[in-house]
Design brief:
The chain is of the alpha+beta class and 858 residues long. It is 21% helix and 34% strand. β25, α5 and β26 form a beta-alpha-beta unit. The radius of gyration is 30 Å and the shape is globular.
Length: 858
């Protein structure tokens, strides 16, 4: 009997060993955890990924930091240590693997990690992953995992005390003794910015898991371009493999839709090895940015095998394209534009920040909404700004899929950095990690070293704030980071993409000069210039510009009460983070909004009118700026305004507020960034129009210009065939201004431009000789009819005289209007659609507001 049982056991073991194990066994450790304040006994439930602030909020231990000035009452959190813990069960199958790794995709930031009370990781960088081989420390059954977070502020103060001088920075809204973010590789905006609160987080901010594997695993698979042209695209899959058992290994590349596979087999020794697999695509479909063509992606699978056993797969989405930053001498100085597949691209877009101050709370739905809003506004580029975080993979995936080019900053902004050897090594590891992580994205257009550090050094008094000896050392430190470490990482791992050391700057690492390089144009707002200045000596690529507004009343009600309804109330002053002392004057942002509103629209009667006019005012600025940049092409080849979104409900430069509600400015940008626009004007007593087209072929059409009075009478008209130049600007001079209007204030007239192309595309725009405040607007009444249409509603609007800035709202119902905050010409019928955010809602009465109403209520 014993022999029989032994035989059965051997048979069972043989059978079991013949069944191939999963090549990579993964145990998810995200989800439910516990946490507590170090030194306190009470443990509370936590969620991973997460952060201590949100866990405390969910547990009811702190007030909502987004309401009024509650953020002040939670500042104590940043100076405490916090501990997170959980137990988990390990299977015998996992323990049989050659390697078992504990992986944190992100730790924020100073963290000691313990497996069964053994220290396995000591983290100090939010922007890298953290791994440890832990199989010897694990046991079958229950195990413990504990993460101890040290206060980033206390750690920063400790490092700061070791410097004999104080590093200059502009971003932290905190006392001098707390200004520590430059010592910590952590999201700078957590320490406060001029549009966001100071909420210095700690936590496991990305997924955590155990993974076990045998023999070998793929560490990375980069589809490296060798040559790309319309006939053939040649690549090689640069596959990096960690080998634990020497032998022959095969890497296979499969491209969806192709029958041919590409393989390479090599004998590999133990350690990190590389297998190159050349492959090619004949007559490939190219990847294009939004508006120029399809953002075509080839699904590619890179698999690793050993003796016909599958050991792992990596999936990539390959966008076949050539992309370069072109800086060539020209009649203006030196160009600065992106050339995609041989085509110059005018970059239309915005600066992007995380959509939540607690970065781990950004969801796929938020990313999808934001990229959808960018597409709806005809954008083709977003700048991931350097004071925040390198974004989630899903963000870049969406940009790949939708043709949104990405200007990617490294995470350095408005601050000098220490340059001790440990800090520099930390930066080097971060740069290597992020360049390798993001390099396979077709949307990636540029690596930029920092935001505004160069101009801050030379123009904000930093250079002269130190002794010559210290100043020379600090500049050498700047060069070491931005002229050596970061470009070395790009050159080593992603040489196909250009590196730009600082934004803004001129060619040759010089200060911005509007003849070369990129420009942050803050003549409007910070320098209080007129909107007309956007068109004066326009830069080659305007990578920052903008103007603030209040969000709509529904958003204001989420963080304030009716007692706060004043633009200088305590709650509104607290929400406003733009004080601007670093430019040599202490200017309050709310007062700046008020001044611009008064300059262009006059004095509002009440707070609601002020909020409405602040949005019209921002929309006027964004329309004027975007049109000025586009009509300055080919000198100017990019317009990225500051900023598309908010990280909390706030008063800021955003065109979309924290809740995803479009401001008037986003509707204005939608029109100004259309693939083909007409921009009419009057100068030197001549009526003219610029036709600007992104289309790659010329388009014939019919141009009509009319001068109307505000009652709708036509006083002058011009009509003629007009062809829109391919990918450029066409100026048409329609004739002299009628004699009776020369040299006069035309307070009652509007120039209307319409263009209809033979391809069915049309464009429409208005030009007023006077700013809104100086116009002689008639009293009018806008009539509206609301009717169901499909899954939403159709709103039909008419007016017997000009109505300026028509704003539509169904109070208490969130949704999206196809157009809003528009001017309605006399006798015009305008039809817009409304899509409610939720189905089955009962709509209240439509609220219709326009500029004349705000004027007449005074």
């Amino acid at each position: 009997m014993r022999r029989f049982l032994s035989a059965l056991l051997l048979l069972a073991m043989a059978f079991t060993s013949s069944v191939p194990a999963e090549p990579l066994l993964r145990l998810d450790l995200s989800g439910a955890w516990s946490f507590h304040q170090a030194g306190k006994e009470a443990w509370l439930p936590a969620t991973v990924p997460g952060c201590v602030h949100n866990d405390l909020l969910v547990a009811g231990k702190i007030p909502d930091p987004f309401f009024r000035n509650n953020a002040d009452s939670v500042q104590w959190i940043e100076r405490e240590d916090w501990e997170y813990s959980r137990t988990f069960s390990v299977s015998a199958d996992l323990l049989r693997r050659d390697v078992v790794e504990l992986v944190f995709d992100g730790l924020d930031t100073y963290a000691d990690v313990y497996i069964n009370d053994s220290l396995v990781i000591r983290a100090d960088n939010m922007f890298t992953d953290w791994r440890a081989s832990v199989r010897p420390l694990l046991r079958e059954g229950e195990n413990s995992l504990r993460v101890y977070f040290h206060s980033p502020v206390i750690e920063g103060l400790r490092k700061k005390s070791q410097l004999p001088y104080i590093l200059k920075m502009t971003n932290e809204i905190a006392p001098e003794d707390q200004r520590t973010n430059v010592f910590t590789r952590k999201a700078p905006f957590h320490y406060g910015w001029d549009w966001g609160p100071r909420l210095v987080t700690s936590g496991i901010w990305k997924p955590v898991y155990l993974q076990g594997w045998d023999k070998a695993r793929i560490e990375d698979a980069f589809l490296e371009p060798l040559s790309v042209n319309p006939d053939t695209a040649r690549y090689q899959a640069r596959t990096e493999i960690t080998v634990t058992q020497p032998g022959r290994y095969e890497v296979e590349v499969r491209i969806s839709g192709l029958e041919t596979t590409f393989k390479n087999t090599l004998s590999l020794e133990v350690g990190l090895q590389t297998i190159l697999v050349p492959f090619e695509l004949v007559q490939p479909k190219l990847w294009w940015s939004h508006g120029l063509g399809e953002a075509h992606l080839y699904p590619v699978e890179v698999s690793l095998k050993n003796e016909d056993a599958q050991l792992g797969k990596v999936r990539r989405q390959l966008g076949v394209r050539t992309l370069e930053l072109v800086q060539e001498p020209d009649s203006f100085g030196r160009s600065f534009y992106f050339r995609l597949n041989g085509v110059p691209v005018f970059a239309k877009g915005a600066n992007y920040i995380p959509s939540h101050i607690f970065t781990q709370l950004q969801t796929p739905a938020i990313y999808e909404r934001l990229i959808g809003d960018a597409l709806a506004a005809n954008m083709n580029m977003l700048r991931v700004w350097g004071g925040a975080v390198y974004e989630d993979d899903y963000f870049y995936d969406l940009c790949d899929q939708n043709g949104i080019l990405v200007w990617q900053d490294f995470m350095f902004a408005c601050a000098l950095n220490p340059a001790d050897s440990l800090h520099l090594e930390n930066i080097r590891k971060e740069a290597d990690f992020q360049v390798r992580r993001l390099r396979h994205h077709a949307s990636l257009a540029l690596w930029c070293g920092n935001n505004e550090n160069l101009i801050a050094w030379h123009r904000w008094g930093w250079k002269t704030a130190y002794s010559p000896e210290v100043s020379n050392q600090m500049w050498a430190d700047y060069e070491r980071i931005f002229y050596t470490i970061l470009p070395t990482a790009v050159g080593a791992y992603n040489p196909q993409i250009s590196y730009w050391p600082s934004s803004p700057q001129a060619f040759g690492n010089e200060l911005p000069d509007r003849k070369t390089g990129d420009e942050h144009d803050w003549t409007v707002w910070f320098n209080e210039k007129s909107y007309a200045d956007y068109g004066v000596n326009t830069g080659r690529f305007v990578s920052e510009w903008g103007l603030q507004s209040f969000p709509e009343m529904a958003t204001i009600d989420s963080f304030a009460t009716q007692n706060d309804y004043s633009y200088r109330s305590e709650a509104m002053e607290y929400r406003q983070r733009s004080f601007m002392p670093w430019i040599g004057k202490n200017v309050n942002g709310n007062e700046m909004i008020r001044r611009y509103v008064d300059r262009y629209y006059g004095d509002p009667a009440n707070f609601a009118d002020f909020v409405y006019l602040s949005q019209l005012n921002q929309a006027l600025a964004y329309k004027t700026g975007a049109e000025a940049h586009r009509t300055a092409m080919p000198k100017c080849m990019g317009s990225l305004y500051w900023q598309i979104n908010d990280c909390w409900p706030s008063l800021s430069w955003s065109s979309i507020d924290y809740y995803g509600r479009w401001k008037a400015s986003h509707y204005a940008i939608q029109h100004a960034f259309a693939p083909l626009i007409v921009v009419p004007g009057v100068t030197d007593d001549q009526v003219w129009v610029d036709i600007v087209s992104d289309k790659l072929q010329p388009v014939a059409g019919q141009l009509t210009l009319r001068i109307l009075d505000f009652k709708g009478d036509t006083l002058w008209q011009y009509a003629a065939p007009a062809t829109a130049q391919a990918n450029g600007k066409t100026r048409i001079v329609a004739g002299e201004v009628p004699q009776r209007w020369k040299g006069k204030k035309l307070r009652h007239l509007v120039l209307v431009a319409d263009w209809k192309g033979t391809d069915g595309v049309s464009a429409h725009n208005l030009y007023y000789p006077e700013w809104p405040k100086d116009q002689k607007l008639p009293e009018t009444e806008v009539r509206s009819v609301v009717a169901p249409a499909g899954k939403g509603y159709q709103v039909t609007l008419t007016s017997n005289q000009l109505a300026v800035g028509v704003y539509l709202n169904f109070p208490g119902v969130d949704g999206h209007f196809s157009d809003n905050y528009f001017d309605l010409l006399p006798g015009e019928t305008r039809v817009v659609t409304f899509a409610p955010q939720q189905t089955g809602v009962t709509l209240p009465k439509l609220e219709v507001v326009y500029y004349q109403m705000a004027q007449s209520r005074k």
